[in-house]
Amino acid sequence: MNLAGKNIKCIAFDLDHTVINSDGTMSDATRTVIEQAIAEGIEIVPVSGRAFATFPESIGQIKGISYAVTSNGAAIYNKKTGERIHGVAIEYADLHSILDAFAHYFHNGQITYEAFVDGVAYGGREYVEHPEAFGVPERNVAYVQSTRKPVDDIIAFLSEHEEELDSLDIVAADTALYQKIEEQIPLVTKSVYTTSAVSYRLEISHKNSGKATGLAYVLKLLDITPEETVAFGDGDNDAEMLEFAGLGVAMENATENCKAAADIVCDCCKNDGVARFLYGF
Questions:
Q1: How far apart are CA 281 and CA 264, in angstroms?
Q2: CATH of 2-87+209-279, one of 3.40.50.720, 3.40.50.970, 3.40.1180.10, 3.40.50.1000
Q3: CA proximity to 258, closest of 243, 246, 276
Q4: Which Gene3D superfamilies does UniProt cross-reference here (predicted)?
Q5: Does CATH place domain 92-206 in 3.30.1240.10?
Q6: Are 235 and 87 within 8 A, CB to CB?
Q7: Are 123 and 98 in contact (CB under 8 A)?
Q8: Among positive and negative, which fits the CA dihedral 157, 160, 164, 167?
Q9: 8-state DSSP, 66
């Protein structure tokens, strides 16, 4: 495939609001384009902040995808076998530094946590049952409830799995508090990677994670260079990946940071931007 003068051997893409619509579905046009690319021998690599078990069914149904980058690059899976082939967990000391620093916010009900362990996303029962109380917009409530497994005590769960965390998310309803916590994280620990795909959830993982790092690991396995890769995304957590790829494409619905990192902007997700860019659908 030749795009913008580049010989493309790999197509990497974020999922939500890039190839997956707000209702959780993939359009027929997008699926057709992905399957056509696979038939032409092009490697397809989904690169997501999602835990592996929460990947949408539409991705699971597509045959020919070898690898999946999950949890913002903290865990990589062989998609065909479901085997985790690479991962970096949050350090014990970093986890407890974060929990200690923001304990008063948690106990006051101002924040809650999500935990990604072994490809599964968990959340406190109250949060999973009532996400809107923690700042989750109505349009995303069904997504949280369908992808997060509830636990009775999220702090106890985090302690129980303190050496197995692919990702720790802080969910805060108050925008000012969210920004304050985001600013304080580097003061609490300098050994984590932080990013975000939505304005109410701060995503924290090991310092050696990130979508660009995860994609780089997969490209090495596939013997493909970044220059031979086109990457699509819409969120702040996609920006580094778009800069890393030979051709970075931001969706029209992307954040300003994501667009600034891209080489070009394509049509929005709901208008099949990826499909139109690749094959002119």
A1: 18
A2: 3.40.50.1000
A3: 243
A4: 3.30.1240.10, HAD superfamily/HAD-like
A5: yes
A6: no
A7: no
A8: positive
A9: -
CA 152 to chain centre: 25
Encode the chain (281 residues) as per-residue pLDDT tens digits. Answer: 767 677 999 999 999 999 999 889 999 999 999 999 999 999 999 999 999 999 999 999 999 999 999 999 999 999 999 999 999 999 999 999 999 999 999 999 999 999 999 999 999 999 999 999 999 999 899 999 999 999 999 999 999 999 999 999 999 999 999 999 999 999 999 899 999 988 899 999 999 999 999 999 999 999 999 999 999 999 999 999 999 999 999 999 999 999 999 999 999 999 999 999 998 75
Instruction: Please state whether the predicted TM-score (pTM) of the whole model is above 0.90.
Output: yes
**Exposed/middle/buried for residue 53 (C-beta within 10 Å: 0-12, 13-18, 19+):** middle
Question: What DSSP string runs through 94-138?
Answer: HHHHHHHHTHHHHHTTSEEEEEEETTEEEEEHHHHH-GGGGT--H
For residue 99, give the nearest of 182, 188, 190 by alpha carbon.
Answer: 188
- CA-based end-to-end distance of the chain: 15
pLDDT at 197: 85
With beta carbons less than 8 A apart as the criterion, state whether 253 and 16 touch.
Answer: no
Structure tokens at 272: 């099949």
What type of residue sits at position 155?
I
Per-residue b or e along 210-246, where b marks 16 or more CB atoms closer than 10 Å to that residue's CB: bbbbbbbebbeeeebebebbbbbbbbbbbbbbbebbb
**Three-state DSSP class for residue 31:** helix
